[in-house]
Amino acid sequence: MTNIVLFGKPGAxxxxxxxxxxxKYDLIHLSTGDIFRFNMKNDTELGKLAKxxxxxxxxxxxxxxxxxxxxxxxxxxDANGFLFDGFPRTTPQAEALDAFLATKEWxxxxxxxxxxxxxxxxxxxxxxxxxxxxxxxxxxAKIRNRYEEYNEKTAPLIDFYQGQGKFHSVNGIxxxxxxxxxxxxxIDQL
Length: 190
Hints:
Strand order of the largest sheet: 2-3-1-4-5
Radius of gyration: 16 Å
Binding site for AMP: 32, 37, 58-60, 86-89, 93, 134, 146
Largest sheet: 5 strands, parallel
Structural class: alpha/beta
Number of domains: 1
Number of helices: 9
Organism: Pseudofulvibacter geojedonensis
Order of helices and strands: EHEHHHEHEHHHEH
Binding site for ATP: 11-16, 128, 174
CATH topology: Rossmann fold
Catalytic activity: AMP + ATP = 2 ADP
Subcellular location: Cytoplasm
């Protein structure tokens, strides 16, 4: 089973690349952002809670995110593997993911970070915000707050996964096909 954690700052291209990689490697794509947006659109309790954090540009608390992810994995226990997009975002989430996967005798195979300059990403998100309808993509201050959250809470995952020998970094700037090729080079060597 191949389980890949794909991470990077908002706007780095995780969702775009995950769509390509899930087909190429026959993985189940689990995007916490997509799951939260579905719940927010349908006004579920989880959706209301998630919206209260996301609209401020904050990350949803670990406990809510972890329980939601476990539920999604349980729906696909016969999968060839998972592509985790947007999770884990913190070291406690990574530890919880490792513990949960271990209960199934699975593990994270690799983590791949899509790296990109903040200024390029801010412009990407502002452009996306014109068509996505996402409030968090239309306000530069909220975008920059999301990057501060990332730097404070998510960047430490680099050390966590480097310590396990599972961290890989890929340049996330360029045409979609170029970035996919870079990601595939890493995945094909796993």
